[in-house]
User: What shape does this take?
Amino acid sequence: MRDNKEWKKNFLERLLKFAVKIIILANKLPKTAAGFAIATQLIKAGTSIGANAEEAQDASSMRDFIQKLSISLREAKETRYWLKVIKEAKLLDANLVNKELIECEEVIALLTASVKSSKLKLI
Assistant: This one.
């Protein structure tokens, strides 16, 4: 069985690495009005996932934890949206975007499971 503290540490590290990859990807966007606008939105959403998950670790209650983790989940879904826009608009090579889309989907799945299991603890 995995140690919960170790799992959290690894997951938070994964979110940090994802944020860095999002910043690197955003910096590759074309230096156009669309590129700058999307880069800004992508960076805000992509870095907010880990920031809110970190903040959740010091939540004052289970409800507060769920609320902060739910924000992370919403930010992950927004990040997925911007990645899809980049891909559909062909602003970057699809292979570059696909790697981050796959990671984003995995992050969404993990956050969804975490939020759902945390909500069960309130019952």
